[in-house]
């Protein structure tokens, strides 16, 4: 019986890379159907150390070294073209990708978000949920599109908001859910169980 080749995944980060670490650990397990082939960043991010721990090549395309977001994205795009991953995962990348780069790779770019989309999109999803006084928020995995957290939802799960929650404590409970959902979505894409050509809300 023919076996499906492992899905090659590139991960892009800006910070500590906690979701990256979880994905690297999952991909190192025997039988996991995807492998991380490169980790890139827009700065000298602490999370690059996780990739080095697992022997995964890293690269940096410093945002500040380019005159515009578009120029930065062109260089990032060239790096990604050289790697030619089957999937790109944004793991705390704190930059919006310009439409041309999204179009080049769509729908093979994923992102996680610490809210139950379409609730509380944007950079402060946890803070906004607390400010709204809701009893629950969540975590989501989406396909990246030209909007801000507006792409098709591939997986999501509710997380309760506790009466004494702070932004840090709530985010700390959301993060493990984000990681679990992300790993499962990558696994399902790699096995063909999830078809990105026709993503469905789950």
UniProtKB/TrEMBL annotation:
The record marks 149 as: Raises pKa of active site His. Keywords: Purine biosynthesis, Transferase. The keyword Transferase applies. It catalyses: N(1)-(5-phospho-beta-D-ribosyl)glycinamide + (6R)-10-formyltetrahydrofolate = N(2)-formyl-N(1)-(5-phospho-beta-D-ribosyl)glycinamide + (6S)-5,6,7,8-tetrahydrofolate + H(+). GO terms for cellular component: cytosol. SUPFAM superfamilies: Formyltransferase (SSF53328). NCBIfam families: PurN. Belongs to the GART family. This is Phosphoribosylglycinamide formyltransferase. It comes from Microbacterium album. The gene is purN.
């Amino acid at each position: 019986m023919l076996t499906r080749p492992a899905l090659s995944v590139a991960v892009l980060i800006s910070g500590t890379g906690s979701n990256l670490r979880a994905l690297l650990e999952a991909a190192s397990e025997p039988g996991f159907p995807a492998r991380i082939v490169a980790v890139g960043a827009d700065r000298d991010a602490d999370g690059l150390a996780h990739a080095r721990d697992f022997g995964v090549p890293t690269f940096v395309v410093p945002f500040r070294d380019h005159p515009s977001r578009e120029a930065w994205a062109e260089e990032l795009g060239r790096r990604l073209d050289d790697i030619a991953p089957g999937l790109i995962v944004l793991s705390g990348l704190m930059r919006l990708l310009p439409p041309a780069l999204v179009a080049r790779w769509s729908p093979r770019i994923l992102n996680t978000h610490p809210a139950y989309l379409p609730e509380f999109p944007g950079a402060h999803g946890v803070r906004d949920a607390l400010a709204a006084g809701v009893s629950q928020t969540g975590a989501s995995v989406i396909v990246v599109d030209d909007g801000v957290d507006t792409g098709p939802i591939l997986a999501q799960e509710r997380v309760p908001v506790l009466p004494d929650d702070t932004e840090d404590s709530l985010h700390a409970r959301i993060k493990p859910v984000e990681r679990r959902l992300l790993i499962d979505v990558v696994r399902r894409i790699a096995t063909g169980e999830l078809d990105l050509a026709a993503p469905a809300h789950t």
